[in-house]
Amino acid sequence: MDVITGNKNNNAYLAGLYSGEPYVSGEQPGLGVVKLNTNENPYPPAPGVLRALADFDGRGLRLYPKQDGGMLREAIAALHGVAVEKVFVGNGSDEVLALAFRACFGLGRDCPVLFPDISYSFYPVWCEFFGIPYEAVPLGEDLLPAADGYARHNGGIVICEPNAPTSLAAGEAFVSEVIEANGGVSVVGGDEAYADFCDYSAIPLTANVKNLLVTRSFSKGRSLAGLRIGYAIGDARLIEALMAAKDSYNSYPIGAFAEALGMAAIADDDYYRMVVDKIRQTRDAVAARLREHGFDVPEPSGNFVFVGCGSAERAREIYAYLRSGGVYVRYFDKARIDDRLRVSIGKPEDMEVFFARLEEYLAI
Fold first, then answer.
1. Does this model's pTM top 0.90?
2. Is residue 256 within 8 Å of 61, Cβ to Cβ?
3. What distance in Å separates the CA atoms of residue 92 and residue 361, rounded to the nearest whole number?
4. In what order do the strands lie in the sheet containing 304-308?
5. 14 falls in which pLDDT band (50, 70, 90)?
6. Which of 18, 73, 228, 281 could connect to 69 by a Cys-Cys bridge, CB 3.0–4.6 Å?
7. In the structure, how many helices (H) and strands (E) does the chain have?
8. Average pLDDT, the chain
9. Residues 6+ apart with CB under 8 A from 74
10. In this structure, are residues 209 and 157 in contact, taking their beta carbons and an 8 Å threshold?
11. Handedness of CA 333, 342, 330, 146 (dihedral sign)
């Protein structure tokens, strides 16, 4: 048996290491800035969550949690009026989606998973990681998808609704048309991370559509990005596939702590609705004010706006000027959207700081 001696030239093992390009999240600056770059909720979690946090009995942490999410899974099922067998709970919607890519998409490996060319940039990363072929279907000039682009042989379809980073929602007619075009052949995944701020959800369709899987998050509307809770709703057979994938690498993705606080978030529904309404009102006011300054802002449906700056050079200038003044927004150096900035919606006072800095730039 050969012994690795530590010789710097003995590096053949490197050829077997994973070298895919990972997902790059928004910058996480320190305190003392206006952080509008990662679509977080600017308001604290519900009072009921904070009470549950204070009252949590940590003595039970010596025990393993329920493998399926326990009572949190039941609470989510009750929230949406579905059977508990149709609910999967995971460690943030990113993990739930990653499991869906592994368990439900591209299983034949002979046809591509389809998703928009301008959408959540984790989709191609998962495909590369799991060895799944994919094709990015171009959005129209209006940044909206066309259903006929998905009416062909495929290994699954993923639609972010409302879409990120555009904040646009294609709506019920589009989703229904995509489902109808694909029958029961391919799994249609609805990524609804931002659906809290939109008037439409595909979850009711799961009552009759067997190949539809909808994923949701506690990070945005319920102010729990730091807790990491996501879930999926779909036919029991899809949920069984997710469970099998989960149990193939980690049987306990949701701890007792997350279970308790997640249930408290669902129970304090009045607060959730109040916060979502505040964010929507602020979002619409921000979009209108940006348009008054001459920016192109499509009608937003998420908790962020997608701001057209006229050119890539101007978008980069504005991004840098805002950042130098402690206001962080998101810039994507990618074709077709390099002339835009994504601006998360903060509290009204946060947006006033944003506008003050932006108007300084415009006055130069």
1. yes
2. yes
3. 37
4. 304-308, 340-344, 330-331
5. low
6. 73
7. 10, 12
8. 93
9. 84
10. no
11. negative
Spell out the residues 6+ positions from residue 82 whose beta carbon is closer than 8 angstroms to its own. 203, 206, 207, 233
Alpha carbon distances (Å) from 207 to 90, 211, 322: 21, 11, 46
Six-digit token string for 222: 């319920």
Q: pLDDT tens for residues 285-331?
A: 999 999 999 999 999 999 999 999 999 999 999 999 999 999 999 99
For residue range 297-309, list pLDDT tens digits in order.
999 999 999 999 9
Please name which of 78, 88, 51, 20 lies closest in space to residue 264, comparing C-alpha atoms.
51
CA dist., res. 302 & res. 192, Å (int): 10
CA distances from 337 to 9, 144, 166, 316, 342 (A): 43, 13, 9, 12, 10
**Helices 348-363 & 269-292, crossing angle to 10 degrees?**
10
Helix (H) or strand (E) holding 71: helix 70-80
d(CA 106, CA 111): 7
Map 251-314 to HEC letters. CCCCCHHHHHHHHHHHHCHHHHHHHHHHHHHHHHHHHHHHHHCCCECCCCCCCEEEEECCCHHH
**Tokens 């993990």 found at:** 95
Would you say the C-alpha torsion 49, 53, 58, 62 has a positive or negative sign? positive
**Average pLDDT of 24-43?**
88
The Cα–Cα gap between 134 and 269 comes to 39
